[in-house]
C-alpha cells in the first residue's frame, strides 16, 4: 500500500510556497494534523530551522502542524511513529547523505510501503525513484550510495526542461543527459515539468497537474504522457 504525492517543485510561477498544491496536500494528509518535515536538503544552504519555518507557515494555512525531523533526539523513532511525512527540495546529495547517516532510508521506505502519507518536492521526489542518479543537483557532498527509496519503479527528473530552439548555447540538453543515463543503467526516467506531479495510490501512478510529462525508456524514443494518464513502466 502506497500513498504519495511526488511533485516537481514547491513554488510555481511566483506563487507562495506550495500554494499551487495546497488543495491536494490537504486531502492527502486528511487523517493527520501533524506532519514530520525532513529539511535535510537545505535549499541555498539555509538552516534546518529556517527551512522548517517556511514549511510550517505554509501548512498552517490548512490547519496542519509541521515538526522538523532535526528537532527529534531519535530521528529514526520519529519516522517510525510519524502519521505523515514531507521531504522538501534542495540538494539531493545532501539529503541522501543525511538519510543514510541517520539510518532513515530503510525505515522511511518501510513506512511508505505500509501506507504512510508521503509528500516529496524536488529532491524529496528524486529519492522516491530507484536511484538519485537523475538529479539536476551539484555533487557537493558524497553519500554512501546513490540508491534511494525505490518506492517507484523508475527514476525522477524534476524541473524537467525542454530544449530551447532559440538558445545560443549548443551544449547538452536535459534530454541528452537522461539518454546518457539510460544507456548506462537502462532504468526508465520520468521528466516532470513544473506544475505537475505524480499521485500514487497503492500500485497506481497517475500524472496530475497542468502539463504533460516526458518518459524515457531504454532503446525507445522519448514520449509524452498527458495529465490524468495512468503510468505503467
Which key phrases capture this entry?
233 residues; alpha/beta; Rossmann fold; seven-stranded mixed β-sheet; four-stranded mixed β-sheet; 7 helices; 27% helix; globular
Structure description:
- By secondary structure, the chain is an alpha/beta fold.
- The chain has one domain (3-161, 188-212): Rossmann fold.
- The protein has helices at residues 22-28, 48-60, 75-81, 92-101, 105-113, 123-126, 174-185; strands at residues 3-7, 34-38, 65-68, 85-87, 118-121, 155-158, 189-192, 196-201, 204-209, 213-216, 223-225.
- Strands 3-2-4-5-1-8-9 form a seven-stranded mixed beta sheet.
CATH superfamily: Class I glutamine amidotransferase (GATase) domain
Overall radius of gyration: 17 Å
CATH classification class: Alpha Beta
Q: Which structural category fits the helices and strands?
A: alpha/beta
Instruction: Give the strand line-up of the largest sheet.
Output: 3-2-4-5-1-8-9
Uncertain regions: pLDDT < 50 for 5+ in a row?
none
Mean pLDDT, to the nearest integer, reads 96
Number of domains: 1
Beta-strand proportion? 15-25%
CATH architecture: 3-Layer(aba) Sandwich
- CATH fold topology: Rossmann fold
Helix content: 25-40%
Number of helices: 7
What is the number of strand segments?
Answer: 11
Question: Tell me, what's the shape?
Answer: globular
Main sheet overview: 7 strands, mixed
Distance between the termini: 18 Å
The helix-strand sequence is: EHEHEHEHHEHEHEEEEE
Amino acid at each position: 500500500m502506497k500513498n504519495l504525492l511526488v511533485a516537481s517543485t514547491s513554488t510555481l510561477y511566483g506563487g507562495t510556497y506550495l500554494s499551487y498544491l495546497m488543495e491536494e496536500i490537504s486531502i492527502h494528509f486528511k487523517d493527520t494534523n501533524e506532519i514530520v518535515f525532513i529539511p535535510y536538503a537545505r535549499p541555498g544552504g539555509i538552516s534546518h530551522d529556517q527551512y522548517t519555518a517556511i514549511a510550517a507557515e505554509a501548512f498552517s494555512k490548512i490547519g496542519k502542524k509541521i515538526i522538523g525531523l532535526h528537532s527529534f533526539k531519535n530521528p529514526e523513532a520519529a519516522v517510525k511513529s510519524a502519521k505523515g511525512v514531507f521531504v522538501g527540495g534542495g540538494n539531493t546529495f545532501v539529503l541522501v547523505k543525511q538519510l543514510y547517516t541517520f539510518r532513515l532510508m530503510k525505515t522511511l521506505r518501510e513506512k511508505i510501503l505500509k501506507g504512510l502519507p508521503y509528500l516529496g518536492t524536488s529532491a524529496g521526489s528524486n529519492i522516491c525513484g530507484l536511484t538519485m542518479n537523475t538529479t539536476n543537483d551539484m555533487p557537493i557532498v558524497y553519500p554512501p550510495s546513490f540508491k534511494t527509496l525505490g518506492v517507484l519503479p523508475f527514476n525522477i527528473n524534476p524541473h524537467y526542461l525542454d530544449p530551447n530552439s532559440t538558445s545560443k548555447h549548443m551544449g547538452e540538453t536535459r534530454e541528452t543527459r537522461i539518454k546518457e543515463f539510460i544507456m548506462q543503467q537502462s532504468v526508465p526516467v520520468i521528466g516532470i515539468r513544473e506544475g505537475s506531479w505524480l499521485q500514487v495510490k497503492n500500485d497506481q501512478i497517475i500524472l496530475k497537474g497542468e502539463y504533460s510529462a516526458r518518459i524515457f525508456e531504454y532503446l525507445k524514443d522519448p514520449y509524452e504522457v498527458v495529465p490524468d494518464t495512468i503510468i505503467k513502466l
